């Protein structure tokens, strides 16, 4: 399939390109980018996409998207969520191992990879469980899991109380150069909590999770990184002090990277309002001050990537009082709009904004996955997202393809509408 | 964000929390309660304000005492009262909270009195019954969040003995962290213009940033008691007496129990309140609970009048 994408605003965060250009796609790859005459001599387009007024960017790379398979098909299925992904312009995503059973055996990973590949939509990169059953006790067969397709290892949101096991896991993973992805949270301090231990939890009578839960875990992890040299990606930071600790760790030269969820980049504890279960998230939405630090940290590069933290939850599980409701929010289709909203509010150039959802997260996944995602350049795989940056869209259950309609942003008007998504040079979504 | 307690005309549609209610609404409830207080002394205690109305006591968490006071209040207003202890009925069969509510709405209920162990549950019920504008929800205690009729009866009691709110010092003492009573009382006091609201307790039993509710924090009870007009004691739940929050009931009593000696630090005419049931010898000494400053039993009497006031106002809106 040869596709000529005409007259679009081509933005490539890696090179910093931001110009009206044409993109030529053939045999799954971008073969040329440039003015109308840049096409290879023998290029005869089978399809021409007029991208006038649209942005042509690398497909989005999402570092945290739960697909709910295997085990939680009542919340969502691979098929629904993969359609949601491409509808959101996401062409590569990382799924955490907190399925049922968890991704702690190579067979499970192979099956998931196979099922995902056969859908021919976005690329799925599973995280392997770091410990068997995510129980925090026994290490998994990381080498075999990596061969099966795991890009790194993680405890998801499961408790990791035993620092001895964490220490050994980091040593073992780093032996083979595997990265470990951790969401810093002290399980004891977070126990029973459902909201940030601050003014809103105090007013509403919700059990609190203190900021210290993140800070203590982060301090522990950073020390173990210093000790073991393991490559660690810190997931979904939520506190101002957490951002500061990562800034210092990077300055020190520790091999760490980190991300923040799109929810935490926009919302704070105040958005819980009158017990809105859609704002029951993990980690909890924190104070306005924390949110400001997260937004700033993402802008100055301390935080490398913005992720959707996609967590589709079935309707019934949200129709419960706040603390009994299941945490999480759907997000694959909101990642681009929320990135654009953040970028506009922070007055950042588009290439810089898109870097947080394309090139930066792709670098964190690493080159081990075969192709270089998150880049728009001649010779690279044609995973592309073509969107209208100026159209505002009202978010409603009806506009979401994900099986999960649970998001605090229902009713919001957000910028950005995906018009075409290409994966491997094929148009997999048109909106 | 609309205030979910008020209807489009700004009248009380549900009573979910004292927080966010206008001062005028609070005063209106207290004034309406005045007219019911006298009634309880009469031979015929019933008035027909809720005749033909069905009041459902939906108690997802057991509380004989609170349920009884609501039942008496509703019956004195001539309502039909149906008591449902839901933790022993349908939800244990797997029926969801909102399915239960749908079923009862279909029985043409007029009012739900809701007690639930989770903060915010009555809000969810109130949101869910929006299609039935004649249906009113009264929060009878949700988790740690609110117990508005208790807060209102505390305000009523204070007004009864102290007449004015604008010059008072009020101390709220004990387990504020887990107390819906404390939250409702504090919001009521600050809304009605009480200039000096204090909370007294160990750091383990005070929620984060409690100062932002408009209170002064004391950890030393002797300092916190100095010159107060009203002492509002809170109940300490048994399960919180030994563990990470407190070492023992005895030690709690030593530091924060209300004894005659500590009460002597308050104003000579100070009143002592307690929402009940009391733990004698844990948060309060019997000599105080049964002493001349105690208004604990009048609180119970006023509680019925206040609940009658709330129900009659809701039914009229």
What are the key terms here?
heterodimer; A: 431 residues; alpha/beta; TIM Barrel; 8-stranded mixed β-sheet; 18 strands; B: 317 residues; Rossmann fold; 2 domains; 5-stranded parallel β-sheet; 14% strand
| Average pLDDT metric of chain A | 96
User: Roughly what percent helix of chain B?
Assistant: 25-40%
What pair of chains forms the biggest interface?
A-B, 23 and 26 residues
CATH superfamily of chain A: Metal-dependent hydrolases
| Mean pLDDT value of chain B | 93
Q: Between the first and last Cα atoms of chain A, what is the distance in angstroms? A: 20 Å
- Superfamily (CATH H level) name of the largest domain in chain B: Aspartate/ornithine carbamoyltransferase
Note the main sheet of chain A: 8 strands, mixed
Structural class of chain B: alpha/beta
Query: Which sequence of SSEs, written as H and E, runs from N to C of chain B?
Result: HEHEHEHEHEHEEHEHHEHH
Instruction: State the CATH architecture of the largest domain in chain B.
Output: 3-Layer(aba) Sandwich
Strand content of chain A: 15-25%
CATH A-level architecture of chain A: Alpha-Beta Barrel
Count of discrete structural domains of chain A: 1
Say what the CATH topology of chain A is.
TIM Barrel
Radius of gyration of chain A: 21 Å
What's the shape of chain B?
Answer: globular
Low-confidence stretches of chain B: none
Query: Main sheet of chain B, how many strands, which sense, barrel?
Result: 5 strands, parallel
Beta-strand fraction estimate of chain B: 5-15%
Output the CATH topology of the largest domain in chain B: Rossmann fold
């Amino acid at each position: 399939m040869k596709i000529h994408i005409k007259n679009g605003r081509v933005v490539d965060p890696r090179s910093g390109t931001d110009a009206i250009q044409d993109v030529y796609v053939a045999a799954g790859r971008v073969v040329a980018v440039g003015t109308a005459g840049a096409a290879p001599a023998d290029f005869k387009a089978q399809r021409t996409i007029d991208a006038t007024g649209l942005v042509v960017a690398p497909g989005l790379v999402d570092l945290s998207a739960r697909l709910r398979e295997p085990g939680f098909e009542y919340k969502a299925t691979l098929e629904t969520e993969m359609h949601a992904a491409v509808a959101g312009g996401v062409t590569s995503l990382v799924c955490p191992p907190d399925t049922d059973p968890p991704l702690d055996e190579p067979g499970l990973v192979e099956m998931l990879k196979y099922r995902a590949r056969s859908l021919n939509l976005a690329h799925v990169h599973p995280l392997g469980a770091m410990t068997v059953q995510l129980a925090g006790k026994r290490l998994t067969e990381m080498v075999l899991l990596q061969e099966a397709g795991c890009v790194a290892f993680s405890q998801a949101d499961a408790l990791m109380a035993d620092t001895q096991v964490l220490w050994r896991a980091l040593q073992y993973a780093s032996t083979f150069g595997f990265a470990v992805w951790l969401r810093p949270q002290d399980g004891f301090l977070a126990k029973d909590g459902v909201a940030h231990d601050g003014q809103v939890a105090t007013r509403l009578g919700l059990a609190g999770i203190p900021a210290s839960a993140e800070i203590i875990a982060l301090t522990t992890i950073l020390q173990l990184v210093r000790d073991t040299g393991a490559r660690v990606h810190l997931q979904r930071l939520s506190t101002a002090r957490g951002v500061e600790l990562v800034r210092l760790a990077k300055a020190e030269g520790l091999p760490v990277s980190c991300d923040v969820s799109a929810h935490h980049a926009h919302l704070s504890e105040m958005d819980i309002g009158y017990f809105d279960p859609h704002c029951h998230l993990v980690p909890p939405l924190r104070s306005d001050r924390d949110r400001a630090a997260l937004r700033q940290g993402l802008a100055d590069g301390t935080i490398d990537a913005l992720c959707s933290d996609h967590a589709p939850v079935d309707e019934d599980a949200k129709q419960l009082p706040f603390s009994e409701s299941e945490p999480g929010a759907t997000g694959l289709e909101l990642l681009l709009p929320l990135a654009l909203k953040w970028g506009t509010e922070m007055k950042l150039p588009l290439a810089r904004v898109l870097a947080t959802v394309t090139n930066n997260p792709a670098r964190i996944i690493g080159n081990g996955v075969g192709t270089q995602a998150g880049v728009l350049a001649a010779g690279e795989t044609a995973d592309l997202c073509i969107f209208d940056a100026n159209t505002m869209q009202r978010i409603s259950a009806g506009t979401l393809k994900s099986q999960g309609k649970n998001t605090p942003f229902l009713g919001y008007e957000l910028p950005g509408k995906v018009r075409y998504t290409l994966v491997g040079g094929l148009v997999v979504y048109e909106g | 964000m609309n205030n979910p307690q008020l209807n489009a005309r700004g009248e009380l549609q549900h009573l979910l929390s004292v927080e966010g209610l206008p001062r005028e609404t609070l005063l209106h409830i207290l004034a309406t309660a005045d007219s019911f207080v006298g009634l309880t002394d009469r031979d015929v205690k019933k008035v027909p304000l809720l005749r033909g109305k069905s009041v459902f006591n939906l108690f997802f968490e057991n509380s004989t005492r609170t349920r009884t006071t609501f039942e008496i209040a509703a019956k004195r207003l001539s309502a039909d009262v149906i008591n449902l202890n839901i933790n022993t009925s349908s939800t244990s069969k797997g029926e969801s909270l909102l399915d239960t509510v749908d079923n009862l709405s279909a029985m043409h209920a007029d009012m739900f009195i809701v007690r639930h162990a989770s903060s915010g549950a009555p809000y969810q019920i109130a949101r869910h019954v929006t299609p039935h504008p004649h249906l009113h929800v009264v929060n009878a205690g949700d988790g740690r969040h609110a117990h508005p009729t208790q807060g209102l009866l505390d305000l009523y009691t204070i007004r009864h003995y102290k007449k004015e709110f604008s010059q008072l010092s009020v101390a709220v003492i004990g387990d504020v962290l887990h107390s819906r009573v404390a939250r409702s009382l504090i919001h009521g006091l600050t809304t009605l213009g009480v200039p000096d609201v204090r909370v007294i307790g160990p750091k383990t039993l005070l929620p984060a940033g409690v100062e932002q509710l408009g209170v002064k924090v004391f950890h030393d009870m002797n300092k916190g008691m100095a010159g107060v007009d009203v002492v509002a004691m809170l109940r300490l739940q048994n399960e919180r007496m030994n563990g990470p929050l407190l070492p023992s009931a005895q030690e709690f009593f030593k530091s924060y129990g209300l004894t005659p000696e500590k009460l002597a630090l308050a104003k000579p005419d100070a009143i002592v309140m307690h929402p009940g049931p009391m733990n004698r010898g844990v948060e309060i000494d019997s000599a105080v609970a049964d002493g001349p400053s105690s208004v604990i039993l009048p609180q119970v009497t006023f509680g019925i009048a206040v609940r009658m006031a709330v129900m009659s106002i809701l039914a009229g809106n």
